[in-house]
Amino acid sequence: MTIALFAAGYSIAATSAHLLSIALAARKCRRPGPLVAALRNAPPVSIVQPLCGIEPFTERTLKATLSLDYPAYEVLFCIARAEDPIAPIVRAAMAAHPDVASRLLVGDDKTSANPKLNNVVKGWNAAAHAWVIIADSNVLMPKDYIQRLAAAWRPDAAIICSPPIGSEPATFAAEIECAFLNTYQARWQYAGEACGLGFAQGKTMFWRKSVLDDGGGIEKLGEEIAEDAAATKLVHRAGLNVYLVPAPFAQPLGARAWRDVWGRQLRWVRLRRATFPLHFTPELFTSGIFALIAAGFGASAIGLPAFGAIVINALIWYGAEAALARAAGWRLGVASPLAFLLRDLALPWLWIQAWSGNAFEWRGNAMTVAAKDAPATASR
User: Is residue 136 a contact partner of residue 49, using CB atoms and an 8 Å limit?
Assistant: First the structure.
């Protein structure tokens, strides 16, 4: 009976924490509203966008980046190698939008073990304006992208970010990636911000440039293997904060393979474990699988059959996730509940893998979160 009571208590506590995170995220997130018009005297903004290879939605995201409804902005596209196959596509996109100030910068500054940051350095240093956005190439920017970032600014802010919201999945593996990105990772990021624990997200980072320049420059983001983790720590040392946009921006996924989804999640868990180990450790208990198992073991303590308790707990757990996705306008399809469940089955194994190794791959670059190996990795 003692085991049953403990199991029932764990299930209730875990489900309550899950529902609280959803409630906190729901207060912060909302569907995108009508387009936000830009003021005529809005300050000019620089967008620095690192590129590496061709992705399924490259032409679409490039067009969106060069079609923003903002009076004064420049786009600095960055590639490490002149022979990168995306180069001619970028040049064609730039030629099709001659009204937007844009440049393609080529070069690889070996300032850190992070190839993305090395690619960004030249763009940051070339940025002409006091406000700079570092945005990944697979962000699908809405027309009012800059306005929505600026609207989230607060006096104590240093960065405004947006977690990636998975959209347009074309395979079931991509559905599972949506389950990871949206109602799991974005949910916890918004819940953390609501509790005063704002973390930067490298997908979109809208900087007041002077904060980073005064903190030691763009190269300071190389102090961690993940530039967003370094940004978070730098901002907090300055006594400032990271905030998120209320309506985060989409990342269209298309057809994803199982291997790609697993590789991406493995990279992220190892980065989180290496950069914020105390915050990462409790992630093991965010999986709904443990709550469902505990509900089955604890069912007798509250007079329910085991199967019935599991079903009720699952309906509450994943029904609340579905409600958040619907309220926020995130991906919600027939396959979403199964994707939620399979994601939660994967979470404990990912957590174990995070502690059992340091290596991962990013866009063909072999990398490691082990500090002692960083110089060797950076030289590749």
Answer: yes
As given in the structure block, the two tokens for residue 113 are 């073990």
Q: Are residues 200 and 342 in the same domain?
A: no
Q: How many residues does the chain have?
A: 380
Residues 230 and 361 in one domain: no
Q: Among 39-43, 159-163, 295-299, which range has the highest average pLDDT?
A: 159-163
Please report the DSSP string for 269-318 in residue order: HHHHHHH-HHHHGGGGGG-HHHHHHHHHHHGGGGT--HHHHHHHHHHHHH
Burial class (CB in 10 A: 0-12, 13-18, 19+), 63: middle
Tally of domains within the chain: 2
> What pTM, to 2 d.p., does this model score?
0.93
> Both tokens of residue 120?
């960004």
Same structural domain, 182 and 264: yes
Do 16 and 126 have their domain in common? Answer: no
Encoding tokens for residue 307? Answer: 């199967």
Looking at the DSSP bridge assignments, the partners of residue 251 are 166
Instruction: State the DSSP code for 182.
Output: I
Instruction: Tell me which residue range forms the domain holding 58.
Output: 33-269
Give the up-direction half-sphere exposure of residue 270: CA atoms within 13 A in the CB hemisphere: 20
Residue pLDDT, tens place only, 348-375: 999 999 999 888 776 766 778 875 444 3
- Mean pLDDT across 8-31: 94
Per-residue tokens: 63: 């067009």
Task: Report whether pLDDT(329) > 90.
Answer: yes
Q: Which long-range contacts (CB under 8 A, 24 or more apart) does 264-269 make?
A: 264/177, 265/180, 265/346, 265/350, 266/350, 266/353, 266/354, 266/360, 267/360, 267/361, 267/362, 268/185, 269/350, 269/351, 269/353, 269/354
In the predicted model, is pLDDT for residue 275 greater than 70? yes
Task: Read off the CATH number of the domain in which 37 is found.
Answer: 3.90.550.10
Q: Same domain for 179 and 306?
A: no
Is the same domain home to 15 and 110? no
Q: Are 24 and 190 in contact (CB under 8 A)?
A: yes
